[in-house]
Amino acid sequence: MATIKLRQVEKRFGEFQAVKPMDLTIDSGEFVVFLGPSGCGKTTTLRMISGLESVSTGDIFLDNRKVTWLRPSDRDIAFVFQFFALYPHMTARQNIAFPLQAEGESKDEIDRRIKEVVDLLQIGHLLNFRPGKLSGGDKQRVALARALVRRPAAFLMDEPLGALDADFRESMRAEIKRLHLDLKATTVYVTHDQIEAMAMSDRIVVMSNAEVQQVGTPAQVYYDPANLFVARFIGSPGMNLITSQYGDGVVRLPGSNRYAVAPDWRMALGEGLDSDDVIMGFRPEAAHIKPDGTLVGEVYASELYGAYTMLHVELEGNEIIHIRSDRQMRYPIGSKVRFDLDPEMVRFFNPKTEMAIN
Amino acid sequence: MSTVIKSQTDVAKVRSAQPNPRRDLSDKAIRNIFIFPTLVLLIAINVFPLVYSLYLSFTNYSAIANKQPVWVGFENFGRVLSDERMWEIFSTTGQYVLFSVALQLILGFALAMLVRDKFFGSGLVTTLILVPMMLSPVVVGLFWKLMYNPTFGYVNYLLGFSNPSLAPDWLASRWAGDPTPGLALWAVIIVDVWMWTPFVMLLILSGLKAIPDYLYEAAAIDRASAWFQFWRITLPQVTPLMMIAILFRTIEAFNKSFDLVMGMTGGGPGTQTEVVAVTLYKQAFQGQWQTGRASALAYMVLIIIIAISNLYIRNLNRMKEGA
Question: ipTM of the predicted structure?
Answer without folding.
Answer: 0.82
